[in-house]
Structure formats: structure tokens, C-alpha cells
Amino acid sequence: MREPLITWIYFSFKKYIKQGSWKLHRVGNILTHYIMAWDSKYVNFGVLKIEGNKVYVYYDRQNYVTIYVQNEVRSANWAGGDVNVTLTDGKIRKYRDLQNYISI
What we know:
Elements: H1 2-17, E1 22-27, E2 30-35, H2 40-45, E3 47-51, E4 54-58, E5 64-68, E6 73-79, E7 82-87, E8 92-95, E9 101-103
Antiparallel strand pairs: 1-2, 3-4, 4-5, 6-7, 7-8, 8-9
């Protein structure tokens, strides 16, 4: 009984999520999602600017997106296709995209 429900969810959401930053992935009977990395325009331009608890990620001279962090940011730099943000309390966050990070 689970297989048809999972299949329905997979194919129903796949058409809506396909063009966004989320991707849906099916492994057997388990339905999961994973997050795509930063768009190449951000990585190729490579400019980060820090102001207090915000990190601005530029993709050209005037346009950027903002990473909001709860604590004040000490430094931020690119590590391959990820943004590593070091906080003043010593914690390091690795951002795979604008909102999702892991602590390293």
C-alpha cells in the first residue's frame, strides 16, 4: 500500500520542484530530497562581503543575495562550491546554499 502513495508524492512534487533549488530523489521506498549547491554565477564571481551578522554573496558588481546569521560573523570565504562562515564564538558553518548549512 505504501508504494503507490510514495510514487504519487514523488511524481506530483517532481514537476513543481524540478526548476527550483530543491530536488526530489527516490531510493527504493524512501522518498528524500537534497539541496543543490550554489549557482555557478555566485561561485565564479567569488565575492563575499560581511556586515555584522550578514554575509552578502555577489554574482556581479551590483547584485547579491544575503545569508542571515544569528551571531556576528568574523570571516567568510569560498571553499570549492560552498561558503564557509566563521562566527565570533568560533563556530564554523558550511553553507551549501542560501539557507542550509552544516556546522563543521
